[in-house]
């Protein structure tokens, strides 16, 4: 008997009919002889609706109370799903994140999982129950307050539970048939990727691919937990996210490029006229670190000989833009930079593939495709298996489509279907 952990996103449990369909899929897995633990997201747009309600009451709701409010969405889903399973003649028990033993730090709105102690889940499985767990939430180790894990937190909950329970697989059910070589909404001819390595999936998630959350993939890699990405709207095979050694055993030669990802959720800040002295860049990024702002791409211009000053540009989540500007303005007199420029009309386009390590010419081909499309590159960043560029937001779709075509990733027949319309 295998232990299967399944996660269903918001579009998969968007209404009563979808919940009943998911219940049938879960019961089928149980009838196949598996123990089943299910993690659910809030129904449809419930989380966004709750955030809107909070802002109607308070422009800046306290983090503790906002977390208490937002976790209600997943509790609704888990209870309704348990009822639907019970109606099919199987015992199901629902658990909040804290009841399931998901222990986090105390950072409201973006808590990190510290430990998972799934004693109650194990007891329920031993007694023959199907366990339904509310995703996206846990309990603070220090304060015992309810916390939320941030966007994509249900993915992370599922993988963390799978690792703690020593499950055989973690199945992530969403509204597309797996991981594709590009977003099907932009590139209808995108191909499904049958198997992809943790490293490539990490780069794709970090580059804006919304199919899996970054922390979820990090957790899976750490515990070598296979992730099976599938659609709850079909029975197609989906995509396996596994260790690279398992891919090498399935394919004679790995594809050079796995896919093209994009991200419109970033902004660019340029610190203009920074004195070219030791420690100034450290002061800038230390201030941003203290404000808990994650920086992505960084570019520093060559210092102008006549002025001894330079410009430093970097990208960050657009939601952190105001906080970053506030932190940097506090440093203006001490550092002596001239001004700050903020641009939230940018997008990031990334080419990902482990095969580029051993294939020269990938960078030139990527830049050539973007140039041929008439798109200007503002910033460049690379890793061993990724090349990212920042372009104007209006040019993102064109750059993605041209790069996808340049590396022969277009499928001859349309196989990418977005069932639920949200991509999660």
UniProtKB/TrEMBL annotation:
Keywords: Amino-acid biosynthesis, ATP-binding, Diaminopimelate biosynthesis, Kinase, Lysine biosynthesis, Nucleotide-binding, Transferase
Keyword Cell division part of the UniProt annotation: no
GO molecular function: aspartate kinase activity; ATP binding
Gene3D superfamilies per the UniProt record, alphabetical: 3.30.70.260, Acetylglutamate kinase-like
GO cellular component: cytosol
GO biological process: diaminopimelate biosynthetic process; homoserine biosynthetic process; lysine biosynthetic process via diaminopimelate; threonine biosynthetic process
PROSITE patterns linked to this entry: ACT, ASPARTOKINASE
UniProt KW Disulfide bond keyword: no
Recorded superkingdom: Bacteria
EC id: 2.7.2.4
Catalytic activities: L-aspartate + ATP = 4-phospho-L-aspartate + ADP
Signal peptide: none
Residue ranges constituting the ACT domain according to the UniProt record: 269-345, 351-424
Binding residue positions for substrate: 47, 74
Top-level enzyme category: transferase
Annotated ATP binding sites: 7-10, 174-175, 185
Stated role: Catalyzes the phosphorylation of the beta-carboxyl group of aspartic acid with ATP to yield 4-phospho-L-aspartate, which is involved in the branched biosynthetic pathway leading to the biosynthesis of amino acids lysine, threonine, isoleucine and methionine.
Entry's family note: Belongs to the aspartokinase family.
Protein name: Aspartokinase
Lineage per the UniProt record: Bacteria, Bacillati, Actinomycetota, Actinomycetes, Streptosporangiales
């Amino acid at each position: 008997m295998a232990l299967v952990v399944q996660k269903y996103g918001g579009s998969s449990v968007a209404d009563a009919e979808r919940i009943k369909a998911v219940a049938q899929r879960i019961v089928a897995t149980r009838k196949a002889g598996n123990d089943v633990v299910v993690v659910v997201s809030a129904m449809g747009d419930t989380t966004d609706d709750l955030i809107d309600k909070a802002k109607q009451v308070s422009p800046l709701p306290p983090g503790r109370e906002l977390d208490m409010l937002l976790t209600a969405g997943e509790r609704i889903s888990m209870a309704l799903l348990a009822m639907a399973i019970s109606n099919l003649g199987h015992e199901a028990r629902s658990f909040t994140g804290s009841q399931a033993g998901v222990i986090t730090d105390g950072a409201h709105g973006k808590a990190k999982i510290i430990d998972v102690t799934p004693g109650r889940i194990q007891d329920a499985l031993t007694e023959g129950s199907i366990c339904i767990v509310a995703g996206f939430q846990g309990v603070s180790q220090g304060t015992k307050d309810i916390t939320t894990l941030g966007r994509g937190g249900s993915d992370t909950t599922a993988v963390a539970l799978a690792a703690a329970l020593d499950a055989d697989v973690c199945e992530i059910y969403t509204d597309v048939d797996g991981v594709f070589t590009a977003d099907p909404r932009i590139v209808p001819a995108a191909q499904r990727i049958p198997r992809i390595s943790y490293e490539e999936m990490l780069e794709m998630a970090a580059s804006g691919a919304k199919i899996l959350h970054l922390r979820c993939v990090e957790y899976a890699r750490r515990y070598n937990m296979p992730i099976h990405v599938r659609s709850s709207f079909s029975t197609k095979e989906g995509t396996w996210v596994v260790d690279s050694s398992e891919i090498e055993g399935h394919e004679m030669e790995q594809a050079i490029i796995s896919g093209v990802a994009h991200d419109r959720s970033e902004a660019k800040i340029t610190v203009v006229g920074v004195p070219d002295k030791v420690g100034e860049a450290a002061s800038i990024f230390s201030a941003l670190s203290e404000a808990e702002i994650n920086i992505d791409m960084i570019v520093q211009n060559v210092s102008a000989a006549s002025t001894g000053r330079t410009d430093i540009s970097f990208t960050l989540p657009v939601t952190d833009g105001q906080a970053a500007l506030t932190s940097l303005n506090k440093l203006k007199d001490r550092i002596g930079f001239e001004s700050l420029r903020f641009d939230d009309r940018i997008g990031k386009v990334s080419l990902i593939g482990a095969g580029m390590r051993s294939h020269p010419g990938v960078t030139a081909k990527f830049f050539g495709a973007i140039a041929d499309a008439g798109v200007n590159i503002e910033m460049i960043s690379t890793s061993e298996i990724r090349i990212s560029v920042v372009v104007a937001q209006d040019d993102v779709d064109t750059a993605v489509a041209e790069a996808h075509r340049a590396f022969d990733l277009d499928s001859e027949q349309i196989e990418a279907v977005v069932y639920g319309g949200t991509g999660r």
